[in-house]
C-alpha cells in the first residue's frame, strides 16, 4: 500500500518538507514525485491531480487525491492509527492539534520575513517587532508542550509527532536567520537540525543548484548551523571499493572520496547527496565502517 507524494523543492519549500516528514518519520510507504515549483511547470505537473494547485499533494493507493498538509495529516492519522502520528494521551493530542492548526494558519510575519532556506545562516538579520511577537508565541507553545507532555523524549510531546512535523520548518527558519530564542527553544531547534530525516532532506536538496537563488538576501552568510558534515568530495572514474550502490544495490557508476577511500554509487544524485552530508545516511556509514 504505497502512496504518491508530490513535492516542489527540498531547500525552500517548507510545505513540501512537512508532507515528506509525515511519511518518512512514521514509516508509511511512499513514492516521491518532483513538481516544477521553480521551473515554471507546476500547473502542468499538477494538472492530473486536479483540483490540486499547490504542493505538497498526496495520492492514496486507491487513487484519491488529498492536498493541504493539514488535510493530509488527518487523512494519514485516520488511515494509520497505529503509526502514532498524534500523541496517544487525549490531553496531549488536543494540545498538539491546537499547535498544528495555529502553525498552519498563523505566524504570518515570520513566514513573510523569513522564507525557509536550508543553504546557510544569514548574519545580521534584524527581525521586526512582528516577527519577535511570532517567536514569543512559538516559544510559549513549545514550552507548554514540553512542560506538560515532553518528559518521555526530546520532542515537543516526548515522542515524535505531527506537531514536530509542522514545526520543523519553523525551527529551520530560526536556524537559517539566526533568530533570537531562549535556551529551551534553541535546544529544540538543534534537535530538529540533528535529526536524521531532516539532514537527509537537506542533503538531497543541496544537490540542486539555483541561479538566481530564491529569496536571497543581501546579507553576509555563515555555514548552516546543523551538524558539521564529514569531509567528502565527488571524484572522476568508477573505481571504488564497493561494486554496488549502498542505497539501490545497482552497479557503481559514480564515486566519492572520503578519508582516502573511494565509495561508489549508482548515479550522480546518490553520490552527491552523500557528499553533502555523509553522516546523514546510515547505509553509507555502515559501508564506511
TrEMBL record:
Protein name (record): Glutathione S-transferase
Matches recorded under SUPFAM superfamilies: GST C-terminal domain-like (SSF47616), Thioredoxin-like (SSF52833)
Keywords on record: Transferase
Domain (GST N-terminal): residue spans on this chain: 12-78
GO MF annotation, one: maleylacetoacetate isomerase activity
Organism: Pseudooceanicola pacificus
InterPro entries: Glutathione-S-Trfase_C_sf, Glutathione_S-Trfase_N, Thioredoxin-like_sf
Gene3D superfamilies reported in the protein's UniProt record: 1.20.1050.10, Glutaredoxin
Gene Ontology biological process terms, A to Z: glutathione metabolic process; L-phenylalanine catabolic process
